[in-house]
Amino acid sequence: xxxxxxxxxxxxxxxxxxxxxxxxxxxxxxxxxxxxxxxxxxxxxxxxxxxxxxxxxxxxxxxxxxxxxxxxxxxxxxxxxxxxxxxxxxxxxxxxxxxxxxxxxxx
Amino acid sequence: xxxxxxxxxxxxxxxxxxxxxxxxxxxxxxxxxxxxxxxxxxxxxxxxxxxxxxxxxxxxxxxxxxxxxxxxxxxxxxxxxxxxxxxxxxxxxxxxxxxxxxxxxxxxxxxxxxxxxxxxxxx
Lengths: 107, 123
Known about the structure:
The structure holds two protein chains of two kinds.
Chain A: E1 9-12, E2 18-23, E3 33-37, E4 44-47, E5 61-66, E6 69-74, E7 83-90, E8 96-98, E9 102-106
Parallel strand pairs in A: 1-9
Antiparallel strand pairs in A: 2-6, 3-4, 3-7, 5-6, 7-8, 7-9
Chain B: E1 3-7, E2 11-12, E3 18-25, E4 34-41, E5 48-53, E6 59-61, E7 69-74, E8 79-84, E9 93-102, E10 108-113, E11 117-121
Parallel strand pairs in B: 2-11
Antiparallel strand pairs in B: 1-3, 3-8, 4-5, 4-9, 5-6, 7-8, 9-10, 9-11
C-alpha cells in the first residue's frame, strides 16, 4: 500500500524555523494537505493544495513541494505550535493516505 | 457554524459490529459540494481514512477495510453512520467524522472534524 514518510520528531527553539518533510512516490502528481493535532483534540487543517492556507491559520505556516518530497514550514515558531503534524495525500485509486506523523517540540 | 458530533457505543465485543452516527448541525448534509466520512486513530498512533459518502448514497472506502465497512446517510435527520463488522482489538481507536470539501480541480480537503469518540473493542 502507498506510504507517506515523515520524520518522527523535530525540535525547535521559540522564534526559529521548523521544517517537516513528507515523502511519497506519488506526491509529484497529487496535492498534499497538512494537519496539526494537539493532545486530546481533533486534527486541524493548516495547509491544503500543497501551499494554500485556510482562513484563520497564521501566516507563519507555509507549504512547498519539490519532486517526491513536500515540506511544511513553521516560521517564528511559538509555544502553541507544539503538536503532532500529519501530511495527507491520495494514491492512484482515490484512497486517502496519511503520513506517519511528526511530533514538533518547542524547546 | 458547522458542527459534527459522533455518538454510539464506546465498548464493543470482539467479532461484533461497531456502529457510530455523526450528527451534522449548522449546514445541510444534502449540500452537493461535500462528501462526509470517517477517519480513525488508534491510541498513540496515526490517522487512517475509512471512507466517504455523498448525500445521494454514493460511497467509497479504504480498500483495506472495504470488506467490513458500511457507511450510510439519512438526509432527513442530517446524519450519516458507520458500521464496521467483525471487530478485533486492532479496531480500538478514536473515530472522527469529517467533511470533505472540494477546493478546486483535484483538490479535496478534510476541513471539518468532529471531536472524536474512543471506541474500545474488548470482551
